[in-house]
Specification:
2 copies of one chain form a homodimer.
Chain A lengths: L1 E6 L2 H13 L5 E6 L5 E3 L2 E3 L1 H10 L17 H8 L11 H15 L4 H12 L4 E4 L6 E8 L2 E6 H7 L8 E5 L10 H6 L3 E4 L4 H10 L1 H9 L4 E4 L2 E2 L2 E2 L5 H6 L6 H8 L10 E5 L6 H5 L4 E5 L6 H20 L2
Parallel strand pairs in A: 1-2, 1-9, 2-5, 9-10, 10-13, 13-14
Antiparallel strand pairs in A: 3-4, 6-7, 6-8, 11-12
Helix pairs in contact in A: 1-2, 1-13, 2-5, 4-5
Enzyme class (chains A, B): transferase
Keywords (chains A, B): Magnesium, Transferase
GO molecular function (chains A, B): LPPG:FO 2-phospho-L-lactate transferase activity
């Protein structure tokens, strides 16, 4: 079976780990990673979501932090701060830095992000086909009000420096209209048996991937069921900081709110199925009234067992939807 | 008094430390550093001699190693090697990396190497005016024979990767003919009271600086005495690895050999005075026959006291030559 996952960073990676542990021996997993939170800092091209997926699946992630490398040191970052480099708010670890150096060096040599990602994955062997959503430059900017004036800042600055604690006025995904799917991305969607949206941020992770017009079209055209996992349990985001992002854009912070934002595939949206937390079971009917099949299961990926069970539940729902066709 | 020093990395820096400890309160020291061993690696512009001077005088050097930063870690370098990046033979420390990142970032923004050096020195406060010899790209390459064929490799590769253990067939200083002195360099020479050549490598450190035509002209024109310190004591280089470089170019490995290579200023060369080691005193006459005033003093900079005494002896010889005019 061919399983294709549209993924952000931390939540998506953890989900994919479960998928890899529970998949059948012949199953192949392709991950299309968000690149809209890529950023140019210190003269380096940094791809946080690609790296989080690669490090997590390749065994190099710092598990407690959820991002960056194990056994990491922070000497270059400390020095940059001492030099007065303003961007030193970014979590630039010394080991991680090597990945950015290789990526930047290769891009300057004229390679594409897809090619660089393949080279980096030769080392990490993530056990999936890891593809950037696009080889074009796409960068999410967040509109905030600062001293009464609207200001657009890069998503990473909003997320890390401001810790997502400032109201969001708008989200601008720069370059998205001119972005083409990276090689292999469209085929991975149209040729999939199942497409999965893991519990990644609907606005800044899943949103940009689905906003690449070629990807959007493929998601509409594929015969595979598209099944998503709610990133909201009860009234809060699973990973905390997404709330301001959602409310600022008028999305209700609930499994239903995000489902409504994504929309039913039958009416031009993204979803055939939607997994919500068992505690949100009462929302099932409202979600199904949107034309999306809902199933309530435990969503917390608190350990390997719960993560694996969520992966199984996701595949179960997908196969049910497949059979129903 | 205005003292201008033409410097390579380790030997020059140590000598300048002595100069700073022993100079008069109103004396100003300008250092014109070799940039011909600059190299582009990992997409970064690395300036080993500028950094060694800056770190040493700014208190950030690793004293035992003689290059790179104190309290250094090597995680980025290890990772680059794990990625299979061939250039990982270079000693790229994590703290040091930050300097290269700032330099590269600024150069890409369109700043000159002089401007970047000034910015970096705002942090390091080296106590001297530190100037690159040129803002233009100049890179020393070493011709070696490999499998019967002549090959030109960057000096850093020869020095670090091959540990200078391979016979040198030729030295090519790429870009030197088109290089102009950096801002302030010519004035620092023509306006100096004393010009000093510390015990730096005559071929790859002092050589390239003096080979910039505008600098060569300024060294010929200045009314200041030009006094050098021999990098050779007895029959060996003070810092070891220079021997192959000298013999490959037909220079006799002795204080006299290097003096003859530099030549007397009175006949178009570089030197008015030349300090040789006390143990080489018997060479005094031969050096003076070249038109260069020689003085035999202890040259080993084994601790602060001996280094300071060498700085005093150098200034003494310079002032004697000044008085004699």
């Amino acid at each position: 079976m061919k399983i294709t996952v549209l993924s952000g960073g931390v939540g998506g990676s953890r989900f994919i780990q479960g998928l890899l542990r529970t998949k059948g021996p012949g199953d192949e997993v392709t991950v299309i990673a968000n690149t809209a939170d890529d950023i140019d800092l210190f003269g380096l091209r940094i791809s946080p979501d690609l790296d989080t997926v690669m490090y997590t699946l390749g065994g190099g992630i710092d598990r407690e932090r959820g991002w960056g490398r194990t056994d990491e040191s922070w000497n270059a970052k400390d020095e940059l701060a001492t030099y007065g480099i303003e961007q030193a708010w970014f979590g630039l670890g010394d080991r991680d830095l090597a990945t950015h150096l290789v990526r930047t060096m290769r891009l300057r040599e004229g390679r594409t992000l897809s090619e660089v990602t393949a080279e980096l994955c030769e080392r990490w062997q993530p056990g999936v086909h890891l593809l950037p959503m696009t080889d074009d430059s796409v960068q999410t900017h967040i509109g905030i009000d600062r001293d009464g004036a609207r200001e657009l800042i890069h998503f990473q600055e909003y997320w890390i420096r401001l810790r997502a604690q400032v109201p969001v006025q708008e989200v601008v995904i720069r370059g998205i209209d001119d972005a083409s799917p990276a090689p292999g991305v469209v085929d991975a969607i149209t040729g999939a048996d199942v497409v999965v949206l893991p519990p990644s941020n609907p606005i800044v992770s899943i949103g940009p991937i689905a906003a690449v017009s070629g990807i959007r079209a493929a998601l509409g055209a594929t015969s595979a069921p598209v099944v998503g996992v709610s990133p909201i349990i009860g009234g809060g985001a699973v990973r905390g900081m997404a709330d301001q992002l959602l409310t600022g854009l008028g999305i209700h912070i609930s499994a239903t709110g995000v489902a409504a934002h994504h929309g039913a595939r039958s009416s031009g949206g993204l979803l055939d199925g939607w997994l919500i937390d068992a505690t949100d079971e009462q929302q099932t009917e409202r979600i199904e009234s949107l034309g999306i099949t809902a199933r309530a299961v435990p969503l917390w990926m608190s350990d390997d067992d719960t993560t694996d069970q969520l992966a199984r539940d996701t595949m179960d729902l997908a196969l049910t939807l497949q059979d129903a066709r």
